[in-house]
């Protein structure tokens, strides 16, 4: 598994196969940090997680996610998944545009209780209004 952690595609492929191949798949926590995720791999992960009924925590810390990737994550927050209670987006190079996407999606999601956003240095005061509206 140590070698797999280095490759985001392998991890995403493993996770999606696990979700698809088992009716009893009980993955509740996914850490995919430091994996150089691409928008394509984030989309693949979100597509699978939209149907997942057991995942409660998703941590994507220290991946350089672009606004397109953040838009896919927003789909997860506004879609059918109602079990996710914790989303870790620390140090993902979140921009003001990305922050607004996340904040707007969070406003429509009642299950998400914890949102980690530390060390996203590109978020400026321009995001404060969206943040306040999210609360």
Can you give the helix content as a percent range? Answer: 40-55%
Number of domains: 1
CATH class: Alpha Beta
Total of DSSP H or I helical runs spanning 4+ residues: 5
Query: CATH superfamily, called what?
Result: Ribonuclease Inhibitor
> What is the number of beta strands?
4
Give the CA-CA distance, first to last residue: 39 Å
**What topology, given as strand order, has the largest sheet?**
1-2-3-4
Shape: globular
Order of helices and strands: HEHEHEHEH
**Average of per-residue pLDDT values:** 81
Q: CATH topology, which one?
A: Leucine-rich repeat, LRR (right-handed beta-alpha superhelix)
Q: Which sheet architecture does the biggest sheet show?
A: 4 strands, parallel
Which spans have pLDDT < 50 for at least 5 consecutive residues?
1-10
How are the secondary structure elements laid out?
Layout: H1 8-21, E1 29-31, H2 39-49, E2 57-59, H3 67-78, E3 86-88, H4 96-107, E4 114-116, H5 128-134
Parallel strand pairs: 1-2, 2-3, 3-4
Helix pairs in contact: 1-2, 2-3, 3-4, 4-5
Task: Provide an overview of this structure.
The protein is an alpha/beta fold. The chain has a single domain, classed as Leucine-rich repeat, LRR (right-handed beta-alpha superhelix). Helices cover 41% and strands 9% of the residues. It is built from five helices and four strands, in the order H-E-H-E-H-E-H-E-H. The chain has helices at residues 8-21, 39-49, 67-78, 96-107, 128-134; strands spanning 29-31, 57-59, 86-88, 114-116. The protein has a four-stranded parallel β-sheet with strand order 1-2-3-4, with no helix packed on it. Helix 3 runs parallel beside helix 4 and helix 4 (96-107) packs parallel to helix 5. The longest helix has 14 residues, at 8-21. The radius of gyration is 14 Å and the shape is globular. The N and C termini lie far apart (39 Å). Residues 1-10 have low confidence and may be disordered.
